[in-house]
Structure formats: structure tokens, C-alpha cells
Amino acid sequence: MNSLWNILLATTLFLLLPLHTLASPASDDQPIARYSKGHTCLACVAVVSVIEQLTQVHNSTVEASMERLCSYLPEKLFLKTTCYLVIRMFGPDIIKLGTFRSDSDLLSAKGCPWVKVWPLARFLKSLSEGILPTNDQTWYLDSLFYVGICALELWEQVMLWSSQVLMNPPSAFQGERQKHHHVQHEGGRKACGAALVTGQFEAWKFTLEKARQIVKKSPTPKYSRSSSDVCSLPFLAKICQRIKSTIKNSVPFKDVDSDKYSVFPTLRGYHWRGRDCNDRNKMAYPGRRPDNWDVHEDSNCNGIWGVDPKDGIPYEKKFCEGSQPRGIIFLGDSAGAHFHISPEWITASQMSLKSFIDLPTALTNELDWPQLSGATGFLDSISGIKENSIYRQLRKRNHCNHRDYQNISRNGASSRNLEKFLETLSRNQLLDHPAIVIYAMIGNDVCNGKADPVPEMTTPAKLYSSIMQTLKYLNSHLPNGSHVILYGLPDGTFLWDNLHDRYYPLGQLNKDVTYAHFYSFLNCLQVSPCHSWMTSNKTLRTLTSERAKQLSNTLKKIATSQKFTNFDLFYMDFDFHEVTEEWRKRGGQPWQLIEPVDGFHPNEVASLLLADRFWKKVQLQWPQVLGKENPFNSQIEQVFGDQGGH
Fold this sequence. Notes:
The chain is mainly alpha-helical and about 650 residues long. Helix content is about 40%, strand content about 5%. The protein contains 20 helices and seven strands. About 50% of the residues are buried.
């Protein structure tokens, strides 16, 4: 039960702890779990605005819209149950927030022009003028955090009771437990517990009744307004420490043998690195050279093992010897991790029961989707295009490369903080195959959310120092015969040029909020992932692109002048223009290549097009990097099928 409970609670905290830095540059000296009033304000505006738009779309009351929103959430991880309990406790406060409308005097508000179309307008205006709310206004900010903290404790209590029931159900419920695993909501009910949620599994009623009694009998928890760190709560301290370590170091939360590979998909599991085939043997993991040709068991997790009964030759030796196996290791930021927030999550007119199906997975992956990324994605694209990730193309070229991928990317990563989690790279110089390492910190060295972003940008001299330190580390850890490719920075003026006059998802219903408004709002609160490109200030955008070009030239200089013992070094431009032209030829528009919710990251289509462009350039210029095409691929498929999948 402890294992299940830890994973459930970890899911909650994985959402709450890093939320404010998920798509933003991480400051070197800023604790990862520290909230800012700007991020709290942003979250508040988004939630209240969605509820208001649901009210408009369905011509319903605010209370009904809150219940509708809860009904859309999945049962998994108790998201729906907790949502209902939260609105029962805090619904009146949310209604008050929603009724705080903008007045005519705010239509010309300066600094935060987005406030004219949002609830909480007076609150946002005060922020735009650099004035924190005082006296009667403090309840807006404090109550939102208060609601969040109370919701967290409530979620903890619900999951605790539920995990106890699930792991030790009364004997009368044993048979039903195997038949039913979800709770169905009866629309329109306004009470919580059994009166709100009904299900065929009676133990769930017991769980919800316990939760209702907790809410009814326990005094409302009160926390200091001076602290916004959920980890200061005693019952969360220990697990917070583990989760902070997982986020900071980019290692699996669940890893029994501590070999940096996991059998669990999220929480930095096999969505990020190849799935472990034996989590109780640290000498069995993806990417290693086979132990005794894997006669008795699969030591490198590529699904190829045993002996061919026809000739007595080990399959690993027959199919993989001399095929030059290699893996891919991606060192990146949120773009490399494929940061993605579904527009359906904030678009009232598109919300349905299907909208939030993947929310639990997203939360436990820090809102990243590495399993669909252009670098290490192994799942079929949900965008419908035919291009594959670099890993899938490497595996297609040689099936012996199966599962040999590592996505060591982190939201907010840059050349300045890579050293803090670079050591989580898993490669043994003596035991493992060579690797293709792609360094792609494409944004955060020039991007930040500061009011004056220029002083925070990385200089060419600092980049040179950081990259040389990284390359020396790689040389001491990569097996001989590896390859390292330094990826340049893009020209981010693309963002403003193609998005500024288009409607943002939350502005599509009433045609009132453009990306220009959205960018200005983020900059006002100083929570923008890239103030210097996401701005109406053309001079600043141009200056940022110039700095990005300087940094790219620095990377190119290093690649052409430095030599290392264990790997060859190459440089490749990040030419987004080529990708947009390819997309135009297919009938698409450039703005369709950017994530719609954050208005910053390349989306799945763009990532896969970039991966395809990358592959073709390497294949043309440095074919030795990719290794041989394995002539035994078809035989591997005949004997081992999908090689155990991913």
C-alpha cells in the first residue's frame, strides 16, 4: 500500500510543486517549489475564466458550471472526487471571484491590457501598477492559495482512505473490486459524497462518505499567509523531498535497483528513458552490451535473447553482432521534453468527457510529453503526420537499438544549470554501447520573464565555459565511438510575427483576447517564458535574436575547433524557416507549428518535422553517426515481434 500511496500523492505534488516553472526558465538560485504571486494570479485568472465561459456556453449558473467542470475530470487519481469536494467547500469563494467584473475605467488600463476582458480586473490592474493588494483586496490572493492548500490536504485525505480500501477491501467487496474500477457522476447533483458521486463499487461509497465526514467534522485547516510552500506542511515534508530530488535530478521516482531506469511510465519513468526489463537487477538496463550474448536472459532490454534452436547460436550474437548498436541521449529544455498543455483544457466550447483523459499522465510528467517528442518519442504521433522521432528512426534502422533512449530534458533548463542534472545521464564506458548525444538548449539562455530580460541572458563567454565543462563531463562518461551534436538556437521573432494578431484559446469564444494581449499579460506579471521574444517591442525581439545568433556561433566555433577522445563533435543550425516552408508546401500555416496555450514552444508537428530534418541532414553529412542499417531487422521481427514493446 505504501508504494501505491506514494505514487498517488506524488502525482498531486508533481502538479503543485513545479507548476510555476514548468515552461519558464529556472533561476539558478531559486528553489524549484517557490510560488510567486504572479503565477498564483495567472492560475486564478485561468480557472475563474474557464468557469465563466462554461457558464456562457451552457447558459448556466456559476455553481452548475463548476460542477460541469468537475464532471469532465477523470476518476483516475481521484481528480473528479476531489474537485467536487473542493467546490463544496470553496464554491462560494470562487463565485465571488467570478463576479468581480471589470469596469469601464479599466478598459484603458496600462501595463496589463489583458485585464479589460477578464474577471479579477481590479486585482490585475493593481499588479500591473506594481501595487500588491492590501486590506480588503488581500483575500483574492490569499483565498486562492488557501483553497489550493485545503484542496491538497483534502486530496491527501481522500487518497489515504481510498488506498486503504483498495489495498485492504472488506471481503464483501472483493468480487466487485475486480469488476469495477471507476466512479460515474450523476449530472446535476450538488451534494458531495454518496449524494454527489455514485458507483457500482460499494467501497467507493465508503471512501467518499469518509471524505465527507472529514470535511464535516474536521476544522478548516489554516495556514500562514506568509508562506506559500506546500512542503512546509509536516505530512508532506518527506515525500516533497523525494519529489524535489526527482524533478531536480531528472531521475525516476520509482526505481527499485537504482539503475536510473524504471518499469513505471511517468514520474520520470520509461516515458523519459527506455523501460527497464528487470528492476531488481541493476546490471540489466537499456543500452548495455549483452552479458554473455544474453543466452539466458535479456540484459540490455532490447527484447532479443535466447538461443536459436536450429544452430545453437545466441540470437543477440546472430542479429546484433557487428551492427553497431547505439542509443540516443537528448540534453534539452522544455521544448526537447515536448511541453504541452491541451487547448481543450481551457476552451469551454470544446470541453467534454474526453478532454481530460490524459490529464493524470500529463501531471505526472510535469506537463511534458517525451513519449511523443521529436527526439525520443516512441508512441505513434497523435497529429497524424508520417514523420517519426529521431529515436524511432534509429530503431527502424537497427532493431538492436530497441529501448535505448534517454530524454534528459527539464523545463527551464539552460547551459547555466545543465550541470545540476547532467550526472543523471546513464552510460558506462566499459559496459555500454556508444551513444548519439544531442545538446539542444534552444531558448532559456536568451529567454526569461524579467521586466528587463537582457541582463539575464547568457553571454557567449559564459556559454563557451559551460559547454566546455559539459563536453569534458561527456568525454569522461561516454563509451568510445560516441557522437555529440550541438544544436543552435532559433530566431524567435517567428512567434510574434505569426501569432500576435490571432485569438488566444481563452479569447476565441468572445473574440476579445489575442496573443498580443496574452504576451503582455504574462510580461506584466513577470511570468513569461520568454519576455524578450513574446513582446510587442521589436527592438527587444531583434536584440534577442542577435544574442541567439551569437550563442549559436559560439557553439559552432566549439564544434569546429575542439577534439575529444571518446566522441566526434558536430554542430547543426536550428533552421525553423526550413520547417515552416515544408509545412507551407503541405498547405499549412506557420502559426500551426506553435503550442496554442503557451504560445511559445514548438508543437508535436513542428517537433517531428524538425526531427525529420535533423535525421536527413545527419544522414547526408555525417552518416557514420547513425551506424549501419541492420540486415536482420525482418528476422528480428519474425522471432521477437515488437521486442516487448516500450
